[in-house]
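Changelog-linked ticket: 2-oxoglutaric acid example.
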Amino acid sequence: MTTIQPNKSSYETHPTNRLIEQGGVPRVSIHDMTPKFFRHEFQLPNQPVVITHALDSSIPVSIDKLIALVGEVEVLTRIYGEDRFSRPKAEWKSYCEMQSMTISRYCDHLKDGSAKRHHRYLALVEMGHTALRSVVGPCLELIANRTGLLQHPEFDMNLWVGPGGHVEPLHYDGMDGTLSQFRGAKRVSLFSPKQTKNLYPFPISQGKMSPSFSQPYIDQPNFEQYPRLTEALAHRKIIILDEGETLYIPVGWWHEIEAIETDYICSINRFWTVDPVWRYAKAPEAGFFLLLAKLSQLRRKLK
Ligand SMILES: O=C(O)CCC(=O)C(=O)O
């Protein structure tokens, strides 16, 4: 780990600030964060940062706590299946299967090992209207207040629960995001939007997989098939996001997320408005992808 002195302007505004860098990504305590500092150092330059101590009042969120608060809530869960990750992504017929069940039932799958065996993941489940807000809401508000991030009008907070070892494949989002670790740790690989062409996004014409996903497996690279991956891997940033930490993932940044081996992990992510909108110029593919998603949403509404 290296200690970085912030540049003069931010140093003058925050003489106590020290950024600790791990894997090429700085870490800042929520107590040292201010909207001005966040905007100049991270949001405007479109750079990721790990924010520490924002979740101290609510960690850990155990499955017993989840069951007590939201066990009866019915949600859609993902099933990737036993052999999906041993097959080339280009052979996948869809991203995953979906199955509806209560959160308690999903926790049974975690406890009896079938979530791990069949790669079941409770992923991206909107929970803003549930009792979970009383536990994690104040932490997310603290992050919003200290960073100045603006909540996206269409998205609230999403729950992610899954077994240790699960890998969520490399992709980017069309908005700013924060990923908060409420239980367990994750290994996160990050690539800047400048690496997009070297990460071989699925072509739009392919139809089955979104162009926001990368075709190769970055931990088992096939350089013959994907020669430009060498260049991308030279720019890979890897961090361990520990329990209690929050990662700011700026729009267009590629991320692959592996739950560190343990019984289970629990995270909450949130999407934020890309502000100012010209930041899409730093991640043009993400802007284009968002536009496509909006058009298909409109088409569905008009039908
Ligand atoms: O934690 C995960 O498994 C994926 C999270 C993610 O993709 C996100 O926060 O944007």
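Closing comment: Example verified and attached. Confidence is low (pLDDT under 50) at residues 1-17. The chain is about 25% helix and 25% strand.
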